[in-house]
Design a protein that fits this description.
The chain is an alpha/beta fold. The protein has 15 helices and 12 strands. The chain has 2 domains: 66 residues, 2-Layer Sandwich (Alpha-Beta Plaits); 289 residues, Zn peptidases (Aminopeptidase, 3-Layer(aba) Sandwich), CATH 3.40.630.10. 38% of the residues lie in helices and 17% in strands. The strands form 2 sheets. Strands 5-6-8-7-9-12-10-11 form an 8-stranded mixed β-sheet, sandwiched between helices. A 4-stranded antiparallel β-sheet has the order 2-3-1-4, with helices on one face. The longest helix is centred in the N-terminal third of the chain and has 21 residues. The chain is globular and about 80 Å long. It binds arginine and zinc ion. Involved in the digestion of the blood meal.
Length: 441
């Protein structure tokens, strides 16, 4: 017996229903899916450390470039001694054979980058949940603390809170907007803005270096929680503090890609997004150490200060260069305190002073937390790179005490430093600021 053939009417009805459902769902989901918004995972991606890449360079093979462009590698750190780069699971084999062909070996710093990211996340959740005093304490209105990393809004709320607690000495500026329209905020702390010498501190130029905004907000807290009792060399300065220079990138690392470095501005004639803000400043911009390729993590942008973030900060600082004695910018990782120049293989004129103050900070850090930092000239330890904010502040504004501080760690976690290390690392950052303030006198 053959089965009865289905009636034609229900089939038509079903078809109509499917069509209606398709129309309905098309209205609730975005018409075009933006691949940039799909969260990036790093399951079984490995973090490698590769030594002796400069030897391979002499054989005309730009190892880091090849690994970045051909094998989709994500460069974490490149200096005169080694390259740290993470490689997606799918590319591990091919990248290994490439290295073998170059007679290079990779030391595996981490066998699963996603596990590092998950550990960082869980560490923060546990640290903030397990504290019984957290809920009952009503001392601070903002939800700021240094047991975990925070989103931009929490950082900005903390800045507003500082301003409202010290209305007479604190001013909060919105100095402009980022590429995606977020506010760029700077606090000024001063008892005498007309006369006191100035120190500028920024963080978060590079999105994924989360310890940087955490440290700069901690410096702010250290200053203000005890302002009345601060020594004269601290109270007698005008402090400019910008915890997040790259808010778009920072938020992007929180929602979508933990390892994003650049800002988020679109590029003409390329689908790749973002400029490395620390290659975008107007000093040695077209020289070594940056890329003209919009897809590279060290893309310098279409022109010096082409980026809103760079432009706004340089204009703000240029107007205030009188009495500007120090420029401190916090990055990670590597545990180094470096000073100009970076764009050329020359030391700044008063390098001996900068080295001495750097050494003092290194010693104090060792006493306080036991961490080993190194003070050095940038080009000697990190290689030559133009377009940096540090060199710019020296060359364009004549700032004397210019330091880039590379916070923890030395590669075990890299950018993905678990929150339990925030407090000590931030204390190390504060120690540098204190030491420089004292040197200004
Ligand atoms: N890791 C930092 C960067 O690559 C180091 C900055 C040192 N200064 C410089 N102008 N390159 O941006
Ligand atoms: Zn950086």
């Amino acid at each position: 017996m053959s089965p009865p053939s289905p009636a034609p009417v229900p089939w038509l009805l079903l078809l109509l229903l499917i069509a209606a459902a398709a129309v309905a769902s098309a209205q609730t989901t975005p018409m075009a899916l933006d691949v940039n918004e799909i969260p990036q995972r790093y399951d079984e991606a490995q973090l490698w450390r590769i030594y002796n890449i400069s030897e391979a360079m002499q054989r005309q093979v730009p190892v880091s470039q090849v690994l970045e462009q051909k094998f989709g590698g994500n460069i974490w750190k490149e200096n005169s001694k080694f390259l740290d780069i993470s490689i997606a699971k799918e590319q591990l084999k091919a990248a290994r054979s490439f290295l073998n062909a170059q007679r290079l070996d990779a030391q595996v710093l981490s066998g699963n980058v996603q596990a590092l990211i998950d550990e960082e996340h869980m560490d923060g959740i546990n640290a903030t949940r397990a504290d019984p005093g957290q809920r009952t304490k009503k001392a601070t209105r903002s939800s700021m603390h240094w047991k975990d990393y925070h989103d931009l809004e929490t950082i900005y709320a903390f800045m507003r809170e500082i301003r409202s607690k010290f209305p007479n000495i604190v001013r909060l500026y919105t100095i402009g907007q980022s590429a995606e329209g977020r506010d760029l905020k700077v606090l000024r702390i001063s008892e005498n803005p007309r006369e006191y010498k100035k120190i500028w501190i920024d963080g978060g130029i590079h999105a994924r270096e989360w310890i940087s905004p955490a440290t700069v907000t901690f410096i702010l807290y250290q200053l203000m929680s005890n302002w009345e009792n601060q020594p004269a060399h601290i109270r007698g300065l005008t402090w400019y503090i910008m915890p997040v220079m790259n808010p778009d990138g920072y938020e992007y690392t929180r929602t979508t890609n933990r390892l994003w470095r650049k800002n988020r501005s679109p590029t003409r004639r390329s689908s790749c997004v973002g400029v490395d803000l620390n290659r975008n400043f107007d000093i040695g911009w077209s020289g070594y150490g940056s890329s003209t390729n919009p897809c590279s993590d060290t893309y310098r942008g279409s022109a010096p200060a082409s980026e809103a973030e760079t432009k706004v900060v340089t204009e703000f600082l240029a107007k205030r260069k009188y009495n500007l004695e120090a420029y401190l910018t916090y990055h990670s990782y590597g545990q180094m305190i470096v000073y100009p120049w970076a764009y050329k293989a020359v030391k700044v004129r008063d390098a001996s002073v900068l080295q001495r103050v750097g050494n003092t900070a290194v010693q104090r850090i060792a006493q306080k937390t036991g961490s080993t930092y190194e003070a050095a000239v940038t080009h000697e330890v990190l290689g030559i790179a133009g377009g940096g904010s540090d060199d710019w502040s020296r060359a364009a504004l004549g700032v004397k005490y210019v330091y880039t501080v590379e916070l923890r760690d030395r590669g075990a976690y890299g950018f993905v430093l678990p929150p339990k290390y925030i407090k000590d690392t931030a204390l190390e950052g504060w120690t540098v600021a204190e030491t420089v303030a004292q040197a200004i006198g």
